[in-house]
Amino acid sequence: MEHSINISLCMIVKNESNTIRRCLSSVKNMVDEIIIVDTGSSDNTKDICREFTDKIYDFKWIDNFSAARNFSFAKATKDYILWLDADDILLPEDIEKFKAMKKSFDTSLDSVTMKYNTGFDEYGNITLSYRRNRLVKASKNFKWIGFVHEYLEVYGKTFDSNINITHGKISYKPNRNIEIYESKIKEGIHFSLRDILYYGHELYDHSRYIEAIQYYSKFLDSNEGWSEDKIRVCNNIADYYLSVNKPEDARKYVFKSFEYDNPRAEGCCRIGFSFIYENKLAQAVFWYEMALKLEKPKNSLGFFNDACWTWLPHLQLCVCYDRLGNHKLACDHNEMAGKFRPNDKRILFNKQYFKNLGI
């Protein structure tokens, strides 16, 4: 049955004075209630939030994001709950999509996913995106799980919407999560498979690659876990081996990622790069061409590097075909890359190079 619904926005915040007004301004006319849970701000975050709501609660920080988020959900009084972080916004076109969805909402739905765009290049192209459960039925009492890198455990009827949440991060706390994990290790707290995975990611992001691979290997060896996470792990390990000039080891892990789903453009580009490193240009061409032939999964919850599905294979094919002596085809691929990155210095350099060749 379709009808208009009431929505509670639930957020946890701490020292978000740089971003919280921007976030709340973008969503204030879409939601019917705003719940703010503050975990210990020392700036004027709460004062800014009072411009939008009087439902502001304090929650003592206990190194557990799920506990804070579950507390915020418990304060909601409306039909559905939307959650955002303080550095998230909805762009005007997504606000309109959201309002339209809200007016004629299928109330049999338990959850609505939205695409989360978290990385952008200087031309506005999305460089990293994935889906998350964003709007959930309050009566289902879905719970957040995990003290860091928490996730909302959702079941039932789900709809993959065309609404985007845009992540506009201004401040970054690079050590916060890894410090929480390492304090939990000292406390002797048991790590779930998900904790093993995300601690591996934190180690990787802090350039502690050997330790990261040990945790990644535990995750892969478990033969459990989400296929998208396994693909991401394989790609991270492959990137490490490429960085230390071990292309065969890199390819091994990319091929392993193909066990979990059909080949992805990200994997094909990594294999292509490994063959360029070895000056095996025909093989490199094969894999970059393969990347361009693949269809990007539409509603997957996995992580995607959009460069690998758009301009990057063209730019690399330009390099390969030029070295192979096919300058016309190299020029064509450079032009196709330029449609996505018109002012990229590499592409502009190539344009001049081909112009000098008379192409």
TrEMBL record:
Sequence ranges assigned to domain Glycosyltransferase 2-like in this UniProt record: 8-130
CDD domains: Beta4Glucosyltransferase (cd02511)
EC code: 2.4.1.-
Gene Ontology MF, one: glycosyltransferase activity
Coiled-coil residues: none
Keywords on record: Glycosyltransferase, Transferase
Pfam families per UniProt: Glycos_transf_2 (PF00535)
Domain of life: Bacteria
Annotated SUPFAM superfamilies: Nucleotide-diphospho-sugar transferases, TPR-like
InterPro entries according to UniProt: Glyco_trans_2-like, Nucleotide-diphossugar_trans, TPR-like_helical_dom_sf
Gene3D superfamilies documented for this protein: Spore Coat Polysaccharide Biosynthesis Protein SpsA, Chain A (3.90.550.10), Tetratricopeptide repeat domain (1.25.40.10)
Top-level enzyme category: transferase
Protein name: SPBc2 prophage-derived glycosyltransferase SunS
Lineage, highest ranks first: Bacteria, Bacillati, Bacillota, Clostridia, Eubacteriales
Gene: sunS_1
